[in-house]
Amino acid sequence: MDQQFWPQIGSSFQDVVLRSQGFYFLALVVFAVAVACLVYYLKKRLDRKKQQEAHKFFEVISSREIREIFEAAIEHNSRFDVRLSGQRREILCLLKEYDRSHVYLEPPSQIRLPERIAGRDVSVYFKVKSHNGRMSFYKFQSRITAVSDRDEYQILSLDMPQSLEMEQKRQHLRLEDATEYLLRLEIRKVSHDARGNFHRDIREFGEVLWSGEPAGNRPFVMLLDISGGGIRLKVAAPKLGMDKDFFKINPQLLVSVFLSDEPGSVADAQWFHLIGRVRKHYYDGFGSYIIGLQHEYRAVLDEGGEKIMGWEAVRAVDGVEDLASWVVKVHLRMFREKGLKSR
Questions:
Q1: Which residues, including other chains, have CB under 8 Å from residue 183's CB and lie 6 or more apart?
Q2: What average pLDDT does the chain have?
Q3: Rounded CA gap, 302 and 118, in Å?
Q4: Which residue, among 111, 287, 296, has the nearest Cα to 190 in the 3D structure?
Q5: 218 and 85, same structural domain?
Q6: Model-level pTM?
Q7: DSSP labels for 279-293?
Q8: 252 & 328 share domain
């Protein structure tokens, strides 16, 4: 009996040891996964904080510049869209005047604003025209301090903002008439390699459908506006042809733009290769088609900015970050170097 008993004990002890080792291994795996999740979470928070801090670069914080912008808004009767916090409702106003502590807006005469909205936080959007006719878009946060009557109209008093952000109500800031900064524009059809992926050689997409250079006379394709979220083109009808099924056959287009940081300079110019989905298209009645595209994919380039390393999907809410930064940079250059239209 002793000969049977000791082997059983040895076998049971070995099972306990193996189970203990398995438990420790499982605990180690769970711990490693938890650490990886924590690192990922902290990295996302850090990236988000960096992104928020980077946006501060696109603010106007100089009191003098803010006053100049408000002066231009008064001159051009710019519309101020006041959005109450927590609501999608907007109050369309005009800027009547301002002082060191307040901004005074006049709402439409046909509506009466209740005094109880005093104390509400608001987001305010407006735009002003620079001396060369371009529009600059701004947003600021403030608080309604009072709703009062003045003569035959009401006045909405807001706290003077500490800064203005360069932002539109639309998701992405848009740059109109970027001709001075556009060195090359090419549009191709979208195609794939044998594996169903986008080509990494731009030439593999085939011949250029439409191209344009600002220096050319009467270009067949023009860049009307561009943003981190999309692009709008004007294409001569003869180039597009009268094929009504063109956009059904080609719901996506590849747009390549060579953009400069300074007008006409190639020193800091960079390529953006963007695959966009055609969201709207129509004939303008004057010999051209207007085409609006939303960015869906962007080419990831090497350090030299020439070779395509791959393609990255673009989220509508984020847009193309590098392109959005370029748009804001150009807006700031237009404002700071050329100034607002003088009165």
A1: 213, 214, 258, 259, 260, 264, 266, 269
A2: 80
A3: 53
A4: 296
A5: no
A6: 0.54
A7: EEEEE-SSSEEEEEE
A8: yes
